[in-house]
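Question thread 4412

I'm putting together a teaching handout and wanted feedback from people who do this every day. The idea is simple: show students a protein as raw sequence, then show them the structure tokens that encode its fold, then repeat with a second protein so they can compare. Below is the first pair exactly as I plan to print it.
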Amino acid sequence: QVQLVESGGGLAQAGGSLRLSCAVSGRPFSSFPMGWFRQAPGKEREFVAACDWSCSTTYYADSVKGRFTVSRDNAKNTVTLSLQMNSLKLEDTAVYYCAADVSPYGMVNMAASAYDVWGQGTQVTVSS
């Protein structure tokens, strides 16, 4: 059973940076697409970034393009998905979730419905 655990959230000032990580466990060969989503208070969950098994193909929400970078480390027996967040804005404040599509023929996707395994989320708060 695949499990995802996020880390790296916290408090940052506007204009600052944070790096989120998502550790994958429970599957020795992890070639499935993964993504980052976020949910701010009172708002629906929204797509942030996603990549295929090697991050040779990446997608970004327009609101984070040029500021956020998704990457992936497929080391032996472990997979870590990262999100480098630079030039943070107040509107980036949200709970950030890591997600994976572990279906047999999963393709990198921006739709939350395409992902079937989710982490517990990590809070990112940007202050002025």
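The second pair follows. I'd like the answer to focus on this one:
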Amino acid sequence: QVQLVESGGGLVQAGGSLRLSCAASGRTSSIYGMGWFRQAPGKEREFVAGISRSASFTYYGDSVKGRFTISRDNAKNTVTLQMNSLKPEDTAVYYCAVDLSRVYSGLYAANPSTYDYWGQGTQVTVSS
């Protein structure tokens, strides 16, 4: 089992920045890929970003490329999402997720079914 707890959400004006963090506990040595997804009311869950175990590879959804940056600290079992130049359409609940397989790659990162454990989510609201 892996437990995930997100933090850092909140209300920010358009053009501002927020930094989300996700702390993992439990079977952390089994974690390979880590990712962030978001879900706005009435919409499907959307891939935001993913990162490989070594952090050598990162993947981003088209809508956030160039604005968001994902990083991880394996010593602290955390994954972070730095969000800059926020837009009202970034408003959503943001979820972190982890993958315990050994085949995490760009081919799978954007698929929610790749991930084995999910956090409870943190609300991000961007006002115009």
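Top answer:
Good format. For the second protein you could add a caption like this: The helical segments are 106-109. The mean pLDDT is 96.
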